[in-house]
Amino acid sequence: MNFKTAGVIGAGAWGTALAQSAAAAGLQVTLQAREAEVADSIRNTRINEAFLPGVELDASIAVTSDLADLAGCDLILAVPPAQHMRATLAAFAPYARAGLPIVLCSKGIERGSLKLMTDVLAETIPHAVTAVLSGPSFAAEVARGLPSAVTLACADLDMAEKLAGALSGPVFRPYYADDIIGAETGGALKNVLAIACGIVEGREMGRSAHAAVITRGFAEIVRVTEALGGNPATVTGLCGLGDLVLTCSSPQSRNMSLGLALGQGQTVEQALAGKRSVAEGYESAPAVRELSRKLGVETPIIEAVAAVLAGETTVDAAIENLLTRPLKPERE
């Protein structure tokens, strides 16, 4: 299959960066923004001032607010916020032909249904070919052409290889895999864990505590991945461990910056005030906690973050609870 055109659904920071990267890979790209005013602004200035200021987009990228304009694309990158994925895909469904590859690029668990984005796609556009793109990648860096590597997973490994080849550019390197559950789980859980790392930073608890949260948080990712039927080996790669390390290591991460504010004493409302971009960890934390409980998987760090975000406990009480848990073998 020869991919020549790509449609990007969602003109947030990550969607805009992926449009830029796909254009650099040689694809003819159409970027769709939900808000007509955002689309108009990008067309007029070639900059997404609302979500990715300071980056001039490739002149070849077409911009629209109409999903119908993506109907003829060879592949689709779906990048709306995770909690809006179902409605967005349902709106695009009339324009999606059978066998259209749709690459899911948003990370999260759907509230209410507790479903992965791959499940949401299967229910809204069942005739699509499902793929997942996930890995350590900050939107601003990708958009500016800095090197990055990600995982691109599809149950059909041959298709995964073809999609990786189509999206691979001079500095954007997708590694392909066939475990879509593992690829998606790592991305969904690491956002919640990044909030925990931000709290550690905000409380000035030290690098040792920071490393402990990353490591024990990764153990939670592995347990949930196994319970969902994914391959634990998948999350030892870019889409799991790699993404976790990046997101937990820089305030450039919206999730870590949220945790940092909480650790410094702000309320959740104060920390979120004035933020136009979504912190997916905040949106997904209740669903991740509920899903872990449903699976019978122990995820104490995720539990603590979800409780803090819901106002069920304080930061200090959550930290004390984690530090006073019974000792246990490390691999349990």
Automatic annotation (TrEMBL):
Residues of the Glycerol-3-phosphate dehydrogenase NAD-dependent C-terminal domain: 179-320
Pathway(s) the chain acts in: Membrane lipid metabolism; glycerophospholipid metabolism
Location relative to the cell: Cytoplasm
Catalytically driven reaction(s): sn-glycerol 3-phosphate + NADP(+) = dihydroxyacetone phosphate + NADPH + H(+); sn-glycerol 3-phosphate + NAD(+) = dihydroxyacetone phosphate + NADH + H(+)
Group of enzyme by EC: oxidoreductase
Keyword field contains Cell cycle: no
Keywords, ordered alphabetically: Cytoplasm, Lipid biosynthesis, Lipid metabolism, NAD, NADP, Nucleotide-binding, Oxidoreductase, Phospholipid biosynthesis, Phospholipid metabolism
Alphabetical list of InterPro entries matching this protein: 6-PGluconate_DH-like_C_sf, 6PGD_dom2, G3P_DH_NAD-dep, G3P_DH_NAD-dep_C, G3P_DH_NAD-dep_N, NAD(P)-bd_dom_sf
Residues holding NADPH: W14, R34, K107, A139, R254, V278, E280
Predominant subcellular localization, coarse grouping: cytoplasm
Nucleotide-binding keyword on record: yes
Record-annotated active site: K190 (proton acceptor)
Binding, sn-glycerol 3-phosphate: K107, G135, S137, K190, D243, S253, R254, N255
UniProt EC number: 1.1.1.94
PROSITE patterns in the record: NAD_G3PDH
Glycerol-3-phosphate dehydrogenase NAD-dependent N-terminal domain boundaries: 7-159
Entry similarity comment: Belongs to the NAD-dependent glycerol-3-phosphate dehydrogenase family.
Task of the protein: Catalyzes the reduction of the glycolytic intermediate dihydroxyacetone phosphate (DHAP) to sn-glycerol 3-phosphate (G3P), the key precursor for phospholipid synthesis.
PANTHER family: GLYCEROL-3-PHOSPHATE DEHYDROGENASE, GLYCEROL-3-PHOSPHATE DEHYDROGENASE [NAD(+)] 2, CHLOROPLASTIC
Protein's name in the database: Glycerol-3-phosphate dehydrogenase [NAD(P)+]
